[in-house]
Design brief:
mainly alpha
């Protein structure tokens, strides 16, 4: 899903909304419960000026799903990095790590 997210962010950087939406839709179809594929869709909303909606979706759809009994207590590290990098937690911090490590 990281690859699909990279396509989304690259397409947004190139101002190609159609490609960004296409990549996000494919990622959501391939892995509808994956946080990274969900963040692609949320990122598109944020970039298009719907930052409060994006933040609310982050809280409800990412953080909200982690409170189930069998769910982890917080999102995976990679998911948290993207949330912070995109400012979906209220403030923009640092770029996420690159590579596999």
């Amino acid at each position: 899903m990281d690859l699909a997210y990279l396509v989304v962010t690259r397409a947004l950087k190139e101002v190609d909304q159609h490609l960004a939406r296409f990549a996000a839709d494919i990622a959501r179809t391939a892995a509808p419960n994956d946080e990274i594929s969900l963040l692609g869709d949320i990122t598109i909303q944020a970039i298009n000026g719907h930052i409060e909606l994006a933040r609310r979706r982050t809280i409800e759809e990412i953080h909200g799903r982690i409170h189930g009994e069998s769910a982890p207590t917080k999102p995976p590290e990679r998911t948290q990095e993207i949330i912070e990098w995109r400012g979906l937690n209220g403030e923009r911090r640092r770029k996420p790590r690159t590579g596999n490590g």
